Amino acid sequence: MIKEYEIIVLCVFFVVWLISMIHSRRILWLRKQAEKAVSKEPIPAQQLPGLSVILTTYNQEELLRKHLPLMLEQEYPAEFEVIVVDMNSSDETLQYLEQTEKRYHNLHYTSVPNSSRNVSVMRLAITLGMKAAANDWTILTNASCAPKSHHWLKQMGQACVEKEETNIVIGYTSIKRNRFKNARKARFFHFWQQIRNLRYATRHGAYRAEANNLGYRRSFFLQNKGFMEGNRLQAGATEILVNHNSTRANTTICVHPEAVVEVDLPHNEGWWRQERLFFMETRSHFRHKNPYRMQYLGSSLLIWLLTLTTFTAIATFALSLPDWYAVGIIAAITVFWQINSFHRIVCYNKVCKTMGEHTFSPLLPYFLHTIIWWDIAAWIQWRMTPKRTFHIKPL
After folding, report:
1. What is the pLDDT of residues 202-234, one digit of tens each?
2. How buried is residue 274: exposed, middle or buried, by Cβ count under 10 Å (0-12/13-18/19+)?
3. What is the distance between the alpha carbons of residues 164 and 190, in angstroms, rounded to a whole number?
4. Three-class secondary structure of residue 87 per DSSP
């Protein structure tokens, strides 16, 4: 006969299992948003805003040669320009820009002054781009980014004027497949975080946004005096900017599949580790962070909670073997666990297919179980790193 404590363990398992099933379906939200964006009536060409693409670069001549023409040759029915801001590159970047400017009338470039060493070069570069922009709407990106469609600007432009009160547009970015050691981890982690960031932005305002595919009103930037905080930090320029100025009302997301930008990561084994380390310092300067972190932590721990309750339930009924009911319940628990895993993989694959991402099916369970450990490792490394590491060194 089934015991009382066994009933409690079984009920806990099924409650957690049901919550996990519902949570897995929540990621389909991104797919629905993308399908909704595709089905919308396009805004007439005469209503699209002029756009100024601000592209920052540092020693990325090779990437500029690959990606800059894709931006300059966008099929955008309204006026647009591309402003390249060079951050004191020591390669042939300026020579390439000088040659390319002769072929494209909508290309302009400038450089950060060599004497500007006591402030963040990235913040100064974006500020210079904003001041040089001829249009009120700017699209922030960098040399490592490449639009996956010739209609990238068209979709971003439509998102800019979708709501009158919009000042910030957060576009979707994917990470290009790469052979370096942590490439697949970085791609999954970026994908997993974007799902949460974009959903949070529509409900509360953006928690963060990188300068890969970001629309920002020039007048809004100048009105809020640009980068008022964090000027001494080496990283996190646009993330702090967006976190401090985004609200639910003034922020729109653009997840149309044609608006996706692909990021070409450095061929550097330690890049991902350093990126997460510097973000730990950046997020310490964020506002309205506790609600997001609670949701983020809940998502990270849910997969472990399901695994724990599953094995606890199996171990509990294993004590009652060889009773017939124990065998049946253990088999049922195993089947339900497998159903949950299969359902999660299907949901992730659907979203990946819609957004043009490569699927993570073989390693998905492993990645979901290790997210929390990646964050803990980055947090420990951040706590052990001297604070001066994250700040601009004074002359």
Report:
1. 999 999 998 899 999 999 999 988 887 767 788
2. middle
3. 30
4. coil
- pLDDT of 342-370, one tens digit each? 999 999 999 999 999 988 888 899 999 99
Cis amide bond preceding 44, omega within 30: no
Vertex 213: Cα angle to 212 and 214 (nearest 5): 110
In the block, residue with structure tokens 């089934």: 2
Q: How far apart are CA 209 and CA 391, in angstroms?
A: 20
Is the separation of the CB atoms in 34 and 354 below 8 Å?
Answer: yes
The residue type of 144 is S
d(CA 2, CA 295): 36
Which residues touch 343 (CB under 8 Å, ≥6 apart)? Answer: 21, 24, 25
What are the residues facing 215 on neighbouring strands?
139, 169
DSSP string over 350-392: HHHHHHTPPP-GGGHHHHHHHHHHHHHHHHHHHHHS-GGGGBP
Beta bridge partners of 141: 55
